[in-house]
Amino acid sequence: MMLLTKPRAVVKQFKSITFHQLQVFEAAARHGNFTRAAEELLLTQPTVSIQIKQLSKVIGFPLFKQIGKNIYLTEAGQELLTIARETFQKFEKLELKIADLKDFKSAQLNLGVVTTAKYVISHILQAFCQKYPNVNISLTVASQEELFERMMSDRDDLYLLRQPLEKISIPHYPFVENPLVAIARQDHRLTGKKQITLEQLARESLILPEPSSPMREAVERLFVKYKIPLQVKLELGNNEAIKEAIALGLGISIVSLHAIGLNELKTSFTLLDVKHFPIIQHWAIAYSPSPSLSTIAHTFFEFLQAEGKQVIEKTSLAKLSIM
Predict the structure, then answer these.
(1) How far, in Å, CA of 166 to CA of 148, rounded?
(2) What is the pLDDT of residue 199?
(3) Which stretches of the chain score pLDDT less than 50?
(4) What is the CA radius of gyration of the chain?
(5) pTM
(6) What confidence score (pLDDT) does residue 165 get?
(7) CA dihedral sign, ordered 141, 142, 145, 146
(8) What pLDDT score was predicted for residue 226?
(9) What pLDDT does residue 5 have?
């Protein structure tokens, strides 16, 4: 009898804890800040404080300790955070399993995509949504570092990341090539020329991303390899700004082939035939090292490796054929 009584006593003690309180607590723990948690959950900061206070009272121990302006989890808080996240994961699995039983009706798929891949994901999602029209998709486009942080918090189901994955060891699978190509405005003097040398390219007004970007680093490695000085006339923060500068006649650039639309190559830009180009980079499909993939995530994972890859390769060949 004692073995049955004790669990019942524990359940009775914590039965007043609500799912909403756990959501508020998890957000506060993840942000380390009540105000940011309130902003995420569309609540007021006092509401978050009250919910945490009530939860602490039920647990019987403080969940946070404050040092200066920062808050940190107590030992009891750490234990509750583990249980809260496990609870959320179990409910997510249940939700997705039920959705699977209903042929993916109202299933939720959360994706994280590195910034350089945002141009290809729309084509993939278009094909996927035609096949699974009832799936709801949440897409986050961010830097590789930001996606790593999301991954450690199990924020998304799958990620499309840039290789190599140097900073973290996670399950990942090769996806498609991400070729870097030289582009110019259609009326540029190098348009139509064959086998342009790196020396010729270096004499042009080059527009490149900031030095910390992976694409810039790849270009610099190529020029260093052939001992050719690289002179950059203009540094810009993103592909859209770079393409705008090219359209204004400010110079030429090196960008991902996937960052240029097929219509843009027909009307505005041209791919230059440069020796040692394209520079081949790669993307990978990755997911958090915690629980196994949900049914919908596994379905999308298989779709990426089959139909998704075909969609991108077909688009790439169409662009290169215009060259």
Answers:
(1) 11
(2) 93
(3) 1-10
(4) 25
(5) 0.62
(6) 67
(7) negative
(8) 92
(9) 38
Q: What is the reported pLDDT for 258?
A: 87
Give the 3-state secondary structure of the chain: CHHHHHHHHHHHHHCCCCHHHHHHHHHHHHHCCHHHHHHHHCCCHHHHHHHHHHHHHHHCCCCEEEECCEEEECHHHHHHHHHHHHHHHHHHHHHHHHHHHCCCCCCEEEEEEEHHHHHHHHHHHHHHHHHCCCCEEEEEEECHHHHHHHHHCCCCCEEEEEECCCCCCCCEEEEEEEEEEEEEECCCCCCCCCCECHHHHHCCCEEECCCCCHHHHHHHHHHHHCCCCCCEEEECCCHHHHHHHHHCCCCEEEEEHHHCCHHHHHHCEEECCECCCCEEEEEEEECCCCCCCCHHHHHHHHHHHHHHHHHHHHHHHHHHCCC
Residue recorded with tokens 């506060």: 28
